[in-house]
């Protein structure tokens, strides 16, 4: 497989696994190589929400264990074009904001920041407290892209998959991955 882009996908235990599935469908269609990391709670929520195991998700070339600090993404010398944490718990957000590398997700995010590579964090929590907001601002100032899964409705989605796919396409935009069929705002005269 000859891929132009190579990305890291980290899945944590927040709700929103439908976004993961749609994101991977989009990446697979444009031949992006994806290396995955999933937390234990991420595995649990994936099973609860979609009835899937991580290995059943489409388009992940390789999965790495959450505690594998010898994985390629734990070093800045490994070449990745970006990382997305989808969905991202506020616990993961807090760990990364504090520079705490308790697992491979934290370490890979830290490497992405220090190497100035795109790090997209789809923080999934509501309501947000002051600690969450301060951690988001801290990571934004360090170079992360804070991109909570917020659906848009001007595209007239019909299904929940439409909502999830539209958000997944926005994540692809943040990673500079051009995907087919992304719905774009074209102004009021086109509505």
Helix-strand layout with pairing:
Blueprint (H helix, E strand, L loop, with lengths): L5 E6 L5 H13 L3 E6 L1 H11 L9 E5 L17 E7 L1 H8 L6 H11 L4 E5 L6 H13 L2 E2 L13 H15 L17
Parallel strand pairs: 1-2, 1-4, 2-3, 4-5, 5-6
Overview of the structural elements:
This protein is α/β, with parallel strands linked by helices. It has a single domain, classed as Flavin prenyltransferase-like (Rossmann fold). The protein is 37% helix and 16% strand. The chain is built from 6 helices and 6 strands. It has helices spanning 17-29, 40-50, 90-97, 104-114, 130-142, 160-174, and strands at 6-11, 33-38, 60-64, 82-88, 119-123, 145-146. Strands 3-2-1-4-5-6 form a 6-stranded parallel sheet, sandwiched between helices. Strand 5 (119-123), helix 5 and strand 6 (145-146) form a beta-alpha-beta unit. The radius of gyration is 16 Å and the shape is globular. The model has no long low-confidence stretch (mean pLDDT 95).
Radius of gyration: 16 Å
Task: Supply the CATH superfamily name.
Answer: Flavin prenyltransferase-like
Low-confidence stretches: none
The span between the termini is 39 Å
CATH architecture: 3-Layer(aba) Sandwich
- % residues in beta strands: 15-25%
Structural class: alpha/beta
Overall helicity = 25-40%
**Main sheet: strand order:** 3-2-1-4-5-6
């Amino acid at each position: 497989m000859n891929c132009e882009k190579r990305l890291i996908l980290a899945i944590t235990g927040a709700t929103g696994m439908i976004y993961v599935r749609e994101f991977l469908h989009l990446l697979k269609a444009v031949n992006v190589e994806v290396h995955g990391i999933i937390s234990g709670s991420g595995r649990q929520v994936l099973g609860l929400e979609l009835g899937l195991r991580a290995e059943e998700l489409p388009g992940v070339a390789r999965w790495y264990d959450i505690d594998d600090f010898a994985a390629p993404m734990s070093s800045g010398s490994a070449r990745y074009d970006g990382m997305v944490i989808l969905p991202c718990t506020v616990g993961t957000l807090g760990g990364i904001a504090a520079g705490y590398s308790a697992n491979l997700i934290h370490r890979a995010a830290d490497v992405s920041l220090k190497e100035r590579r795109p790090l997209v964090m789809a923080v999934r929590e509501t309501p947000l407290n002051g600690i969450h907001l301060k951690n988001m601002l801290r990571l934004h100032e360090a170079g992360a892209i804070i991109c909570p899964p917020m659906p848009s409705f001007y595209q007239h989605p019909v299904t929940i998959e439409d909502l999830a796919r539209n958000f997944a396409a926005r994540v692809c935009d943040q990673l500079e991955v051009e995907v087919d069929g992304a719905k774009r705002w074209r102004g009021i005269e086109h509505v």
